[in-house]
């Protein structure tokens, strides 16, 4: 059955490779070069999976060094009064990361996952120094171009490598662990850099953490991480009729299918873009909104960290939960909860109200983030899954660029509160789109499969 035929079916469509258990049970095996069998599953690949979780924590930490400090740096050090101009670093980051995701998928299929991961960490090396000592705002924007490349290559490969290792039965859990590690590290680093900045200033001290993350990440990627592309090939070999018998789709066809053609993939792409649109708002404008109401740098740092902390910790549960109850309803609920949280930020004027709003925003995002990645992994054939993830992440991380433009323009024209309300409305609309358009993609055997 082709993807097009599946969409025309009046019954709930089944994800392409969920119709039957893998040959030989939940752990397909295949030949590894050198004779060792390849096994899928978390337990079978625990050491390597755990290492990739640690690597992605470093990826998140590199991003987290900016969350508290950079909006205030734009305002206090570089004196950028227009919100649109101040958010140029998020625009540069988001646009670069979005495009890099697309190329990362094709490169990881062609050359392997590990070379792409190592390349991403090499790009990261100059970023902390540029942030710490860059003499003009142009240096900060250039550092965020490099950060977009770094995050597009490294976060992408840690995602796809975990999907490769985990197999279909525990894909949601795998994505939950991956995203939890990354965003808990964002939260910890945002808190740490806020505290460092309160004592030693906005530059250079907070960015020394980023330098340590980059050096350690490069060392682990080069010396300890192993290639996982053969795991994807083993899974593909176990499913010769998967994805409607279309394991050899071209990149242009994959882009169309992910963006528009398949109802689940396209709904996930739209929801992912809006999710990161509101994350751009939280990253770039929330610290300015809190400062305008008189909060000191320490409390701004707590609020900046609370959202990704709840988001990160929550994914430890929500990824696993989506393996049990399905993807669609968690995504719908998460988008609507985020919309409500943004409304609470807009009406709030005190620290306790914003604490509640940030926690609610983190909970909603936790429901959405790993689950959207699991949807892509459910539907895409292993032979073209990396490129499908790249297209999805092109749309999702494009939300940073769209969010920076939309939020900045609206904040300059109508004020910070209006910008928050507008993004809340877009987030609610995305939740409604998922409810109407997406079909359930969770593999039917996942709930009954043993932990592997």
Automatic annotation (TrEMBL):
Keywords on record: Cell membrane, Membrane, Transmembrane, Transmembrane helix, Transport
Residues in Major facilitator superfamily (MFS) profile domain copies: 45-442
Membrane-crossing residue ranges in chain numbering: 46-64, 84-104, 116-133, 139-160, 181-201, 207-225, 330-347, 353-376, 397-414, 420-439
Subcellular location: Cell membrane
Region of interest called Disordered, as start-end residue ranges on this chain: 1-37
Superkingdom, natural source: Bacteria
Biased composition, class Basic residues, residue ranges: 1-10
Coiled coil: none
Biased composition (Pro residues): 12-28
UniProt membrane topology term: Multi-pass membrane protein
Keyword Transport annotated: yes
Alphabetized PANTHER family for the sequence: INTEGRAL MEMBRANE TRANSPORT PROTEIN, RESISTANCE PROTEIN MDTM, PUTATIVE-RELATED-RELATED
Name of the molecule in the record: MFS transporter
């Amino acid at each position: 059955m082709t993807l097009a035929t599946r969409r025309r079916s009046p019954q709930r469509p089944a994800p392409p490779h969920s119709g039957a258990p893998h040959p030989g049970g939940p752990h397909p095996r295949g030949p590894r070069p050198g004779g060792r069998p390849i096994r899928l599953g978390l337990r079978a690949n625990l050491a390597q999976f755990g290492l990739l979780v640690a690597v992605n924590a470093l990826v998140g930490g590199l991003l987290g060094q900016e969350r508290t400090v950079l909006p205030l740096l734009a305002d206090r050090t570089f004196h950028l009064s227009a919100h649109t101009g101040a958010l140029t670093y998020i625009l540069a980051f988001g646009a670069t990361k979005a495009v890099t995701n697309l190329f990362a998928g094709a490169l990881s299929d062609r050359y392997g996952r590990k070379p792409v991961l190592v390349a991403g960490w090499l790009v990261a090396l100059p970023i902390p120094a540029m942030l710490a000592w860059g003499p003009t705002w142009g240096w900060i924007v250039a550092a965020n171009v490099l950060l977009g490349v770094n995050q597009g290559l490294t976060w992408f490969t840690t995602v796809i490598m975990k999907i490769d290792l985990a197999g279909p039965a525990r894909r949601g859990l795998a994505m939950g662990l991956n995203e939890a590690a990354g965003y808990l590290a964002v939260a910890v680093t945002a808190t740490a850099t806020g505290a460092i900045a309160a004592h030693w200033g906005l530059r250079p001290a907070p960015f020394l953490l980023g330098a340590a993350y980059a050096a350690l990440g490069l060392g682990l990627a080069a010396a300890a991480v192993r290639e996982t592309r053969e795991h994807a090939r083993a899974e593909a070999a176990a499913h010769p009729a998967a994805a409607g018998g279309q394991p050899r789709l071209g990149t242009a066809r994959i882009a169309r299918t992910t963006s528009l053609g398949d109802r689940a993939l396209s709904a996930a792409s739209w929801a992912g873009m809006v999710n990161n649109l509101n994350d751009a708002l939280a990253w770039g404008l929330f610290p300015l909104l809190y400062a305008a109401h008189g909060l000191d740098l320490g409390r701004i740092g707590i609020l900046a960290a609370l959202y990704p902390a709840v988001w990160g910790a929550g994914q430890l549960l929500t990824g696993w939960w989506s393996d049990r109850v399905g993807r669609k309803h968690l995504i719908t609920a998460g988008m609507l909860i985020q919309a409500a949280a943004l409304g609470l930020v807009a009406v709030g004027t005190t620290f306790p109200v914003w604490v509640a709003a940030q926690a609610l925003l983190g909970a909603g995002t936790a429901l959405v983030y790993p689950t959207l990645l699991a949807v892509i992994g459910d539907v895409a054939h292993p032979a073209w899954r990396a490129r499908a993830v790249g297209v999805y992440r092109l749309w999702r991380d494009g939300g940073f660029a769209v969010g920076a433009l939309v939020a900045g323009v609206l904040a300059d024209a109508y004020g910070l509160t209006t910008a928050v309300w507008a993004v809340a409305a877009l987030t609610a609309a995305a939740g409604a789109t998922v409810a109407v358009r997406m079909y359930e993609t969770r593999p039917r055997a996942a709930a009954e499969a043993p932990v592997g």
